Amino acid sequence: MAGRFVPEPTRTTVRGGHTPVPLTPDAPIDLGLTLGPLRRGPADPTFRVTPDGSVWRASRTPDGPGTLRVAVRDGEVAAEAWGAGATWLLDRLPALLGAEDDPTAFVPRHKLILATHRRRPGLRLTRTGLVLESLIPTVLEQKVTATEAYAAWRLLVRKYGEPAPGPAPDGMYAMPDARTWTQIPSWEWHRANVDGKRSATIVRAARVAARLEEAAHMDPPAARERLELIPGIGPWTSAETIQRSNGAPDEVTTGDLHLPGIVGWALAGDRTTDDEAMLTLLAPYAGQRHRAARLVLLSGRVPPRRAPRMTPGDIAHL
C-alpha cells in the first residue's frame, strides 16, 4: 500500500536526550501539504516552519507536552522529539505523515482534480491521534473569521499553555491540558474575543476529554457521532476535527460558508452550490471525498467574490 513507511532502527541513536528517527517513505511526502492543516494561522504558537524547511510542532500528548521536529532530506524523513511526550510523538510519526493513508485508492474523475493530483504527489492525509488538539481550535473557528479564531487560539495557548520542551523556536507553546481549559475565567474568554457559546462548548468537551480522545481510535463515522454528543459540536466541527485526528479520507466538511461554492464552481461552474449539491458532485469519490475536496481547494480555482466577507466582531466592546 502506498504511504507505508519503513523504519530503520539500526540507524536510530540517542543523543542529547532526544531520539533522531530516520524513516524511508515509499512515495514522496510534502510536509507543507500533509501537516499544513494542523497550523492555525501564520503565528500559531504550536506550529512553526523554520528556514531550513523543518516543521516543528508542540503537542499535548497523553504522556504530557512534547515537541516534534520533522524534516525531509533526500527522500528520507528525519524526526527528533523532546519532553514527556517525545516517545509518544515518535511512535506515531508515521501516522502523522500519512503512513495509514492510501493515495492509490483515489481515482480522479474530473480533469481539474486529475491535474491537481498530478501536481501534488506529496499530499498525504495526516493522522495525529489527538482529538482535543484539533477540536478546540475548530470550535474557536465556529461562525467567526479565521483571523479572529487564530488570534483567540494564539492568546489562550500562550497564556495558559506551557513553553514547548527542548530547543524549540522561541515563542512555541504546547496547548493547555484539559483541566486548565475548564478553569479559564470568563473574562479571559471575553478578552480573547470568544463568546459564551464557544467557550461553553470547549469547557464541556474538556470535561469529558478522556472519552473524546477515545474517538481517535474509532472509525470516523462513529468518532464523529461521539463528538456530536457534546452540545455545540455539530457536523462542521466534528468533520474538521476527525479529518485531522483520524486521517479520515471520506469525512467531507458540510455546513461551511465557502466550501460548497468552491467545489460547485470548480466541478460544475456553479457558485450557488449548497451542501446537498456538493455531496452529489463528490459522490463519485465515495470513500475519498475529503481528499477530493482538498484537491479542489489546492487547485486554486475559486469563484469570483461577490458577497461581502464576514465582518470581524469584537465582543470586548459589547
- Helix fraction, binned, reads 25-40%
Give the CA-based shape: globular
Strand order of the largest sheet: 1-2-6-5-4-3
The CATH topology of the largest domain is: Endonuclease III, domain 1
How many helices? The count is: 15
CATH superfamily of the largest domain: Hypothetical protein, domain 2
At CATH level 2, the architecture of the largest domain is Orthogonal Bundle
Q: What keywords describe this structure?
A:
15 helices; globular; DNA-3-methyladenine glycosylase activity; six-stranded antiparallel beta sheet; 3 domains; alpha+beta; 318 residues; TATA-Binding Protein; two-stranded antiparallel sheet; disordered N terminus; Endonuclease III, domain 1
Task: Please give a structural write-up.
With 318 residues, the chain is an alpha+beta fold. It folds into three domains: 5-102, TATA-Binding Protein (2-Layer Sandwich), CATH 3.30.310; 132-245, Hypothetical protein, domain 2 (Endonuclease III, domain 1, Orthogonal Bundle); 259-299, no CATH class. Helix content is 39%, strand content 12%. The chain is built from 15 helices and eight strands. The chain has helices spanning 31-35, 86-91, 93-96, 111-119, 132-140, 146-160, 178-182, 186-191, 196-207, 209-213, 220-227, 235-245, 259-268, 275-282, 289-299; strands at residues 5-7, 21-25, 47-49, 55-61, 64-73, 76-82, 162-163, 173-174. The strands form two sheets. Strands 1-2-6-5-4-3 form a six-stranded antiparallel beta sheet. It has a two-stranded antiparallel sheet with strand order 7-8. Strand 4 and strand 5 form a beta hairpin. Helix 4 (111-119) crosses helix 15 and helix 11 (220-227) crosses helix 12. The longest helix is centred in the middle third of the chain and has 15 residues, at 146-160. 44% of the residues are buried. Residues 1-27, 40-61 are annotated as: Disordered. Its EC number is 3.2.2.21. One of its GO terms (molecular function) is DNA-7-methylguanine glycosylase activity. This is DNA-3-methyladenine glycosylase II. One of its GO terms (cellular component) is cytoplasm.
